[in-house]
Write a structure and sequence with these properties.
The chain is α+β, with helices and mostly antiparallel strands and 126 residues long. It has five helices and three strands. The chain has a three-stranded antiparallel sheet with strand order 1-2-3. The chain starts with 22 loop residues before the first helix and ends in a 7-residue tail after the last helix.
Length: 126
C-alpha cells in the first residue's frame, strides 16, 4: 500500500513552506532588541500595572535553575522574582526578595505568573 504522505512525482506538494532563514538571518531576528522588551501587565488589585520580563535563552536557564533549587514553599515567590521587571526588562527583584514575595496575595500572584509563563512559552499549548 502506498504511503499517503508521499507526493507522487509531478504532483504539487501543497502550499509552499515558509522560507528557510540563513543562520545569520535567524541570529539577527532572534537577538533583535525589540524581542526582549518588558510587557506591561495590569494588576487591578494593586491599582496599576507591572512590567513582565521576556526571557532570553540565558535568562530561561537562570530562571529554571532558580526554580529547581528553591524550597517548595518558595516556588511561586521565586517565579515572581524572575517575572517582574523594570521598563528595561531587567529583574525588579533579587533572590533576597523571595521571602517577602512569598507574602504576596495569591489572587494577585497567580495571574501575574500565568501571564509571564504565557509570554515566554512556558505553558503547554491548548
Amino acid at each position: 500500500m502506498p504511503n499517503p504522505q508521499l507526493v507522487p512525482a509531478g504532483e504539487p506538494a501543497g502550499p509552499p513552506a515558509a522560507p528557510f532563514l540563513s543562520p545569520a538571518d535567524f541570529k539577527r531576528r532572534a537577538t533583535a532588541a525589540d524581542r526582549f522588551q518588558a510587557v506591561p501587565f495590569e494588576v487591578p488589585d494593586f491599582g496599576g500595572s507591572v512590567y513582565l520580563r521576556r526571557l532570553t535563552a540565558g535568562d530561561l536557564d537562570e530562571y529554571q535553575a532558580a526554580v529547581a533549587k528553591c524550597p517548595d514553599d518558595r516556588t511561586r515567590a521565586t517565579i515572581l522574582a524572575h517575572a517582574v521587571a523594570d521598563a528595561t526588562n531587567r529583574r525588579a527583584f533579587l533572590d533576597a526578595d523571595v521571602p517577602d514575595l512569598a507574602k504576596v496575595d495569591a489572587a494577585v500572584l497567580v495571574p501575574v505568573i500565568r501571564r509571564f509563563q504565557e509570554l515566554n512559552g512556558l505553558l503547554p499549548k491548548g
